[in-house]
Design goal:
CATH superfamily: Amino acid/polyamine transporter I
Number of domains: 1
Helix content: over 70%
CATH class: Mainly Alpha
Structural class: mainly alpha
Length: 424
């Protein structure tokens, strides 16, 4: 007999009052998807190509949602994170390769996000770069260890609302909406080398490997904290609630992507600023709606999403390694209960911090992790596709044709784009 859990009941209604309180792990996933690397990538794409790549928002939404739904289903159906599922089905070599891919991409992403956050703060307060980046890293690390992440994230969710300024810009500037609609639904890309690089970056920052590991592990942890055992009490209502949560989280992420690209195209590209070199240039896209407060809004958006995303990046690395080596894990546990898990989080942040002293421009450096994620994602998606159809792993919750189609198309897109880039 199907059993209704507290979790499925809480997530079951997406509409109505209390929307934010009912959303589950996928809301954090969606918010973290629009991290500083995402903001920088979408701003650069809008500035460089105008409306030319807006069609990517239509393409990436169902693909990203399909991959994240599969990741969430792993956690709910098996009671294990993604790395643990890989370890149970494949050889140690496959596991090490998968963990190495996500860890490498995450370290670069953490470094880029930290650098962008520090650079943005310096728009408002002229403090030494080294001092601000070290202080921000220390604060985030202390908060992640000392404060339950759900408590911490509730506050940060409101900071991410500053990204709504990009939506506000669209109502006060002259936007060619006919051109926007045409570019969104009628692709016209020339597929030259620069555009292919941008496509890889957009795919990589929207369908990012760290989100796969985070989503699966957070589903498990949330169920455990609610006193339910994943897999045992799973029913169709529960899965529908999870899918609604994933759809809401990824739709909000892609909508913000769309708004940033349109705003940047209508301001920066229109002003013939096609390369975003500094935080000040990126912030100028908000000037039509914020005026002299543009730097403040931009900084709030970068810092808010960064403080949400960097712990997710470090946490997903820790989940992957903890699953691989059988360590105690979970942000709901104390440092004493999960020393290895929290040590990985600390180490990931420190390594990411160290990368910021390599001389890479903080804003331009945001583009690199997006491309790296785009290259790291395909082998991980392939493993997920196989696992999703493995009866020994998923039991009766194996992937159906819709899931296989969406995840397969995501894999195909993320394989073909780099190949086309290399051949162009």
């Amino acid at each position: 007999m199907a059993v209704r859990t507290r979790h499925s009941g809480r997530r079951g209604r997406i509409r109505g009052f209390g929307y934010f309180s009912r959303l589950g792990p996928a809301f954090i996933t969606g918010a973290a998807d629009d991290d500083p690397s995402g903001i920088g990538t979408y701003s650069q794409v809008g500035a460089a190509f105008g409306f030319g790549l807006l069609w990517m928002s239509v393409v990436t939404l169902p693909l990203a949602a399909g991959v994240q739904e599969l990741a969430a289903r792993f956690g709910l159906a098996t009671g294990h994170g993604l790395a643990s599922c890989i370890a149970r089905r494949y050889s140690r070599g496959v596991l090490i390769g998968a963990v190495a891919l996500v860890a490498t991409a995450n370290l670069f992403n953490i470094g880029a996000d930290l650098g962008a956050m520090a650079s943005s703060v310096r728009l408002l307060v002229r403090v030494p770069y080294t001092a601000v980046i070290v202080a921000m890293t220390a604060v985030m690390l202390a908060l992640e260890i000392a404060v339950p992440y759900r408590t911490y994230s509730r506050v940060l969710r409101w900071l991410t609302l500053s990204l709504g300024a990009y939506v506000g810009v669209l109502f006060v500037i002259d936007v060619d909406w006919a051109g926007v609609l045409r570019a969104t639904f009628v692709p016209s890309a020339t597929m030259n080398r620069a555009e292919l690089g941008a496509i890889i970056a957009v795919l990589g920052t929207t369908i990012s490997p760290y989100l796969f590991f985070w989503q699966a592990s957070e589903e498990v942890e949330e169920e455990e904290q609610l006193g339910t055992k994943p897999g045992v009490l799973l029913d169709r209502r529960h899965v529908r609630a999870m899918r609604g949560d994933v759809a809401a989280g990824m739709t909000s992420a892609v909508f913000v992507m769309f708004a940033i690209m349109v705003a940047s195209a209508s301001t920066l590209h229109a002003a013939r600023i096609t390369n975003v070199h500094t935080a000040a240039e990126a912030a100028s896209a908000l000037e039509p709606v914020a005026g002299r407060f543009a730097s403040l809004l931009f900084t709030l958006g970068i810092v808010g999403t960064g403080m949400l995303a960097v712990p997710v990046l470090a946490g997903s690395t820790a989940y992957a390694l903890a699953d691989a080596f059988g360590w105690e894990e979970g942000l709901g546990k104390t440092f004493r209960q999960a020393r290895g898990f929290y040590s990985v989080i600390a180490g990931a942040m420190v390594v990411g911090l160290a990368m910021d002293f390599a001389g890479i421009d903080p804003i331009r450096g945001l583009y690199l992790p997006a491309i790296l994620n785009g290259l790291a994602a395909p082998p991980l998606i392939l493993l997920m596709l196989f696992l999703g159809n493995d009866p020994g792993t998923m039991g009766s919750w194996r992937s159906g044709w819709v899931s296989n189609a969406l995840v397969g198309l995501a894999l195909l897109a993320m394989v073909l784009a780099p190949i086309a880039y290399l051949l162009s």
